[in-house]
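Reopening this one. Same input as before:
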Amino acid sequence: MSEPRILVVGSTMMDLIAYAQRLPEVGETLVGDRFQMGFGGKGANQAVMAARFGAPVAMVNAVGNDAYGSAHMENFAKEGIDTTWMRTVEGSSGVAPIWVDAKGKNRIIIIPGANNSTDPAVAETAVREFAPAIVVGELEIPQHVTLAAFRAARAAGITTLLNPAPAAELDPDLLAATDWLAPNETEFATIFGGEPRGDGAVARIKAAAAKSGAKLVVTLGSAGAVIAIPGEELINISAPEAKVIDTTGAGDAFLGAFAFGLASGLTPVEAAKLSVACASASVERLGTQSSYLSREGAAALAAPYLAKRSS
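Same output, byte for byte:
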C-alpha cells in the first residue's frame, strides 16, 4: 500500500506541569511535589506520536519568536517531523499550565498565543504539496484554519480526522468536512448532549453518529473506546490494565496512533485497539510527549497489527 503520510494541522504548547497530592481549593496555596516542563500542544503531541510509529509526518502551525518557539522547531527536527509549513510570528508561543494530582488526574489551562496566527492558506498548501493519506485537526487553533485544510483534503479524496478538543461548539461546516470525529466523554457531551456511558449510552452514541454524519471513535479513558459508524452496531474496544501515574497527553497518544493506523490501512477496529494500547502505555509515565512510547516501543506495539493487515 502507499506510504502512510500524515498531516497534522494543530497546536504547539509548552507544558508547565505541577504535581501535587491534591489540587488547591479557591484561595488556597499548596506546596507541590515536583515540576516538569515539556513539549505539548494537541497537534504537536499527535504529530510526535504518529512519527514515532515511523510514519512520514508534517505539521502546520505558528510559533512565537521566543525561546519556546525555537525549542519547538528543534524538537520537531529531532522527531523527524516536516516543518515546511510551520511559521514563526511576532509574539509569544502557546503555553499550557497543568496541575496533576496524586491519582494522575489533570487540570489544564491553555494560552494559545501564536497558535491563533496559524494561516489557513498555508494549511491548504500543505495538503496539496505534502499529499497525505490523512489530515488531522483539533480545536487549539482557530476552527476556520482546520476547515480550510479539511476542505482541501476532501477535494483530493483524503481522509479527515478531527479531535474536537478542547470541548467547544463545532462549526457545522467543519463537522460536515470531517470523516472521523474523535471526542472524549466531555467533548461528546458538549457536542451532542448526554454522556457516552451509563444507561442509554448506546442509543445516544448511535444518535450522535447519525446526527453528525461522521464516523465516531469515542475515547472513554480506562474503559477504552467505542467505534460508531452510522447505520452499524457499536464496537467496544477495552483497555488493558494500567498503573496510572499521569493522564496528561494520553488522548493525543490515542489520536496519533489512530491516525497512523488508518493511514497504514488498518481496519478502524484494529486502529482503535492499537491506539488504546498506546494511550494506556502513556499513562504509566510522567509528562506529555516524554510519556510516549519510543520509536522502538511504538514499532514493537504496531508490528502484530501491521502483520495482520498484510496477512
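So the earlier flakiness isn't reproducible anymore. For the record, The chain has one domain: 6-25+35-310.
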